[in-house]
Task: structure prediction
Amino acid sequence: MEDYKYMTIVEWAKNYIASEKLKTNDRFLTEKELCAIHGVSRQTVRQALMRLESENVICRVRGSGTFVKGGVTAMPSLTKSIGVISTYFSDYIFPYIVTGIESVLNESGYAMQLAITHNQVAEETQALRSMISHGVQGLIVEPSKSALPNPNTDLYNELKRSGVPLVFFNAKYPWSEFPCVSMDDEAAGKLVTDHLFDNGHSKISAIFALDNIQGHKRYSGFMQSCLAHGAADAEKNVLWFSAAEKKQLFRFCKERLLEMLMNSTAVVCYNDDLALTMMQFCKEYGINVPEDVSIVGVDDSKIASICDIPLTTVAHPHRRLGEMAARCLLDQISSPQNEHKDIIFAPDLKSRNSVKNLRITEKAVS
Result:
């Protein structure tokens, strides 16, 4: 996966130099800027820069910076390329999704132009305009802050009127008519909550992202399960947070979180990233998982199965989802007259050690 990351930066850098029309001896981006753009370590960026230097694309001058060497020419106008816009590109599920997208595009003769928005609407605007100006044949987009009003509505509507093929992945804006390829987030929220009830839990709390539509859908599934099991007041035990401010949640809502944990036997977390942070928080305050509180997540990220207490979660179809998003876009390109509907993957529960079975405990006591 590290090899894929640095090669993605290499291809991105070549496209960037061409699209920005940088000339020989023009200053190139710094290591720090590349780390921020791609959300990767300095080691990965340095691998990419070494590759670019070996291909005579750039040259690095000690004490002065990095400069274009002239090894890149502008992409021909006939090059078939697809713009891919992702909120993040980290060690979570995103590299697998992008790998799936790229594999299908490459097989069909399309190059991929990748942009990262860091879940910021302004960066999404910039990425959309840049890719459109460079004549991409279609777009595959993960929306930023998908549950909030979006100032890019007019831009997306213009894409629709102009017949530009576009597919959303992971989520889509509620007002959009473009198709979306995603996991069934509502079913995922219900699945992990049902699992807790099945294991004898009744005091269940939850934490969801308020600015992403996935958070709303997972909350809906959580509430469906709670209502089906007679926990009508479950909404009182839900805490909402902004996805971009997870660290602030654990810093400034410490008392609220501790109160939640003390009054619950289980917590449903928006995703694995949050669940693993919650586990660390519990460890810091002497709360044992799963003996004192059970924790579940969503996504089945790489760390979920190998952390200190393997996490019960829902498997995200990441690579398969990326492959399907690319195929859906290629279908739009080849058959624009056809109706293209959303494609939804069913969730798959991964039961591990982070959930305590209270029914077994009750039988042992009796």
